[in-house]
């Protein structure tokens, strides 16, 4: 039997439309609503899918600082999150439901 070849899964390759990106972010928020670093990493995945350089320009951030902010290693400040969401065409909205 030959060797099994595997490749690393990159979710960014599967986030092709704005609807897919919004659904992915919503699922990540539902999965870990209190984990800001996890949600920032999800935004990083979406930014990579859309094009990190263009997102950085649209958000008014350097590409390097955007990578650091959305790495999942730390929780970026809320201003950065709002700027990135705007650059990605995503909106923050409030709803009611279970806590």
Describe this structure in words.
- The structure is a single chain.
- The protein has 99 residues and is mostly helical.
- The protein has one domain (17-87).
- It is built from 5 helices and no strands.
- Helix 1 (18-31) packs antiparallel against helix 2.
- The radius of gyration is 15 Å and the shape is globular.
- The N and C termini lie far apart (51 Å).
- The model has no long low-confidence stretch (mean pLDDT 93).
What are the SSEs and their pairings?
Elements: H1 18-31, H2 36-50, H3 52-59, H4 63-69, H5 78-87
Terminal Cα span: 51 Å
**Gyration radius, in Å:** 15 Å
Biggest sheet descriptor: none
How many beta strands in the DSSP annotation?
0
* Helical percentage: 40-55%
Report the principal-axis shape: globular
SS content category: mainly alpha
Share in β-strands: under 5%
- Number of structural units classed as domains: 1
Note the run of SSEs as H and E: HHHHH
Low-confidence stretches: none
Round the mean pLDDT to the nearest integer and report it. 93
Q: What's the tally of helices?
A: 5
Describe this structure in a few short sentences.
Helices cover 55% and strands 0% of the residues.
Relevant terms:
99 residues, single chain, globular, 5 helices, 55% helix
């Amino acid at each position: 039997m030959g060797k099994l070849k595997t490749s690393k899964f990159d979710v960014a390759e599967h986030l092709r439309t704005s609807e897919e990106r919004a659904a992915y972010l919503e699922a990540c928020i539902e999965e870990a609503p209190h984990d800001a670093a996890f949600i920032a990493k999800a935004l990083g995945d979406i930014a990579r899918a859309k094009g990190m350089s263009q997102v950085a320009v649209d958000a008014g951030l350097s590409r390097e600082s955007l990578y650091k902010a959305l790495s999942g290693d730390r929780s970026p400040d809320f201003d950065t999150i709002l700027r990135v969401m705007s650059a990605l065409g995503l909106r923050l909205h409030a709803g009611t439901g279970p806590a």
